[in-house]
Amino acid sequence: MFGQIKKVLILAPHPDDAEFGLGGTIAKLIADGKEIHIAVMSTCEKSTPDGFHKGVIIEEMFKSCQFLGIKPEHIHTFDFEVRDFPALRQDILETFVQLRLELKPDLVFVPSSSDIHQDHMTVHQEGMRAFKHTCLLGYEMPWNNFGFTSFVFVKLTQQHVDKKMAALNLYESQKQRSYNNINFVTSLAQLRGGQIQQEFAESFELIRFFDF
Predict the structure, then answer these.
(1) In terms of C-beta density within 10 A (0-12 exposed, 13-18 middle, 19 or more buried), how is residue 127 classed?
(2) Has residue 40 got a pLDDT over 70?
(3) What is the C-alpha to C-alpha distance for residues 61 and 67, in angstroms, rounded to an integer?
(4) Is 156 exposed, middle or buried (0-12, 13-18, 19+ CB in 10 A)?
(5) Which of 35, 68, 90, 143 is the most exposed place for a label (fewest CB within 10 A)?
(6) 197 with 187: CB under 8 angstroms?
(7) Using one digit for the tens of pLDDT, what is the confidence trace for 120-162?
């Protein structure tokens, strides 16, 4: 399915969204020689947990992305205020249009249409507008989703799942999250794998896909 895809862009509202949503797929695509870009729309300084310095989350994101194999020059960071994306949607749309013109990606990953977080919803909606003539897949965040249409599956190996979890473990400031643990990550990968009679997988919402 991704055979003719050369350049991939992941739209992540916040640091660690890309790793949670498709960390295993990122590892697989990089191993297959694809050029991966990630656009992280907020530094999330307002959400810094007690006991950590401001800026720690974005520092962890750079470590995590580089661990997965994303080149530093392919990590694009922006400073939209966390939880305020709906009020900033026009600026976010214009940022996405600029990314489209600069990068010309073959495939774009966005949060799914069923993601109820206000920032994720905005990135999904404006991402569809900016990249309506690009292949689009929606990634799942089960704690935010009211239902999920998993029509696209990417088969993963244990190695891919382990790399995803290792990348997430680099977010020391986020380890208090209930879903940031190996049991959750592995169980979801096993569930999606079981749906296609494989050991592990990640699944995606099919938004738009073109044959090249």
Answers:
(1) buried
(2) yes
(3) 10
(4) buried
(5) 90
(6) no
(7) 999 999 999 999 999 999 999 999 999 999 999 999 999 999 9
At 178, is the secondary structure helix, strand, or coil? coil
Q: Which residue has 């997430």 as its token pair? A: 168
Residue 155: Cβ-neighbour burial (10 angstroms; 0-12, 13-18, 19+): middle
> How far apart (Å, rounded) are the C-alpha atoms in residues 92 and 187?
34
Q: From CA 109, how far away is CA 182, in angstroms rounded?
A: 23
pLDDT digits (tens, 9 = 90+) for 47-85: 899 999 999 999 999 999 999 999 999 999 999 999 999
The answer to whether residue 212 scores a pLDDT higher than 80 is no
Nearest to 123, CA basis, from 18, 208, 209, 12 = 12
What sign for the dihedral angle of Cα 82, 106, 95, 67?
positive
CA distance 168 to 126: 26
Give the architecture (CATH level 2) of 7-208.
Answer: 3-Layer(aba) Sandwich (3.40)
**Running DSSP on this structure, what letter comes out for residue 45?**
G
Give residues with Cβ within 8 angstroms of 1, minimum separation 6.
152
Task: Tell whether pTM > 0.85.
Answer: yes
Written as one letter, the residue type at 140 is: E
Instruction: Tell me how far apart the alpha carbons of residues 136 and 109 are, in angstroms, rounded to a whole number.
Output: 6
